[in-house]
Amino acid sequence: MSIGVHPDYEVVIGLEVHTQMRTASKLFSPAPVSWGEPPNHCVHPVCLALPGVLPVLNVLAVELAIRAGLATHCTVHEQSVFARKNYFYPDLPKGYQISQYEEPICTGGWLNVPVERDGERELKRIRITRIHMEEDAGKSIHDAAVTGRDATHVDFNRAGVPLLEIVSEPDMRSPEEAVAYLRVLRSVVRYIDVSDGDMEKGNFRCDANVSLRRHGAEEFGTRTELKNLNSFRFIEEAIRAEIERQAELLDDGGRVEQATMAYDPGRRRTRVLRFKENADDYRYFPDPDLVPLVLDASHIERVRATLPELADARATRFQRDFGLSDYEAAVLTASRTFADFFEAVVEAGAGGTAAASWILRDVQRALKDRDLEIEASALRPEALAGLIAMVEGGRTTARSARGLIAELVERGGDPEALVAERGLEAVSDTGTLERVVDEVIAAHPDDVERLRGGEQKVLNFLMGQVMKQTEGKADPGVVRKILAERVG
Ligand code: ADP
Ligand code: MG
Fold first, then answer.
1. In 67, 107, 239, 360, which residue has its Cα 20 to 30 A from 422's Cα atom?
2. Which ligand is nearest to the CA of 101?
């Protein structure tokens, strides 16, 4: 049995994501959706709950919700209902938030997520419970530098901005899996133009529900909910910190109490905001100002027809056309720009398997080290295709080429010129290589004997010695041939 992230406990994680829909106006009012405008400049009587106003549903938001549902394999319902979620807060002037509750627009979907388990890379299906539309609240500003001392100001620019809440089943088993799911989900909403997914602006944020149970136990443990995490790094850290807190409690014979938690990145610890017994009672009921949202099946199908080729379909095509594994295809199609880059490399002449392997190994590592997305990198698809062609043609070695990837990612450039400039041409000149091989053979007589005796792994050692002597520039094919001839 896998021990997973904790030796004694299995970690169970379910995520609630709020993503801001890409609309020009708000969910129930014509006020513009804005970023960085002066406070209270993007409001309308509906956002401020002035007496006598009525909400009018934004049709584009409905279309985006349908797109999100279809792209995540949900059932999109022909009827859904807006409800009032009642609570008091200064940035919520109506005294309730309009959300969907008992009848959300989408239910029962899933996403395939690339994960690593016990060193194996595989795809894991994470189920999506529901997707519903709701409005965002305003912002309370407590910052004394802005408000003057002892004052809180309220900015209603965000009040009524359309959100999708996407709720997963408790299907994730580690912080890494949670982040892997979020990466796929974020790229899906970006792929289909539902949201810009900008985490820094809070346009894609996550509440993480975390519980522990003994390995092999059937029942889930009591969960806590970590609120409003808006970077992948904090999400992973926060979940890790919460696992540690719960494990310590359980180890000491204590119980986890259901609670809402906040993460303090400075101390790398989670703390309780409020316990569940004091939880708000939202007194949900259908909003009498809004009729049920009714869509007919043909409308849903019309929206389906406007979707781009989705990541899953593209992954299946990559597997079929290029013989990639399902994991490789899923990683390559995880973002549209990444998949486009792969296709452009193939278009520029590289074979599918070679392009995939260079991108997934070397390019991805270089991007990750620099915290770059492919679109922000200077590496041109033609350059990568050119470099691959040079390796395959024996004009430079894989090792030399690998050494250039970081530079190409960071500064771009022409691989032909770089190889020439750095003197990285492969040494395939037989005379030179025969001399090096003879030196290596002379220096390692015992190893040569073992190879003659059938110990194949010694071959790699001798190859390695030749590579070392030639600073990685020897054409491995030629070296192998000469070694075979010499050793017999
Ligand atoms: P609430 O409305 O109180 O937040 P939900 O039933 O909507 O409750 O669940 C919220 C999230 O909690 C879902 O993503 C679900 O997968 C997750 N969840 C439920 N039970 C557990 C558990 N025992 N451990 C971890 N996550 C859980
Ligand atoms: Mg919740």
1. 360
2. 1
Distance CA 472, CA 479 (A): 12
Q: Establish whether residue 223 lines the binding site of ligand 1, counting it when its CB lies within 6 angstroms of any ligand atom.
A: yes
Q: Strand locations in 256-338, DSSP E?
A: 259-264, 269-275, 285-286, 293-294
Give the number of the ligand closest to the Cα of residue 276.
Answer: 1
Q: Cβ(25) to ligand 1 under 6 A?
A: no
Tokens 């090792």, residue?
A: 399
Q: Please tell me the distance from the alpha carbon of residue 275 to that of residue 261, in angstroms, as a whole number.
A: 9
Give 10-residue mean pLDDT values along the chain (488 residues).
72 98 98 95 96 97 98 98 95 96 98 86 94 96 83 94 98 96 94 94 96 95 94 95 96 94 95 78 95 97 94 92 92 89 96 96 93 91 96 90 94 94 85 90 90 86 89 85 84
338 C-beta neighbours (distance < 10 Å), count: 22
The span from the CA of 47 to the CA of 92, in Å, is 9
What's residue 4's pLDDT?
62
* Token pair for 401: 């080429």
CA 341 to each of CA 323, 334, 358, 381: distance values in angstroms, whole numbers, following the listed order = 18, 12, 12, 6
The DSSP code for 156 is -
Q: Which two tokens stand for residue 465?
A: 């010695």
What's at 346, amino acid-wise? V
CB 42 within 8 A of CB 157: yes
Residue type, 422: R
Q: Using CA atoms, how far apart are residues 325 and 328, in angstroms rounded to an integer? A: 5
How far, in Å, is the centroid of ligand 2 from the Cα of 261? 12
Can you tell me the distance from the alpha carbon of 309 to that of 266, in angstroms, rounded to the nearest whole number? 42
Mutate to test the pocket of ligand 1, among 167, 214, 222, 277 (most ligand atoms within 8 A of CB): 167
Full-model pTM: 0.83
Ligand 1 atom with the shortest distance to the CA of 171: 16
Q: For residue 217, what are the contacts with CB-CB under 8 A and spacing of at least 6?
A: 10
- C-beta of residue 32 within 8 angstroms of C-beta of residue 148: no
Among 209, 212, 284, residue to substitute to test ligand 1 (most atoms within 8 Å of Cβ):
209
Is 74 strand, coil or helix?
A: coil
The domains located in the chain, with CATH, are 9-299 (no CATH), 309-422 (no CATH), 430-487 (1.10.10.410)
Q: What is the three-state SS of 170-202?
A: CCECCHHHHHHHHHHHHHHHHHCCCCCCCCCCC
Classified as helix, coil or strand, 448 is helix
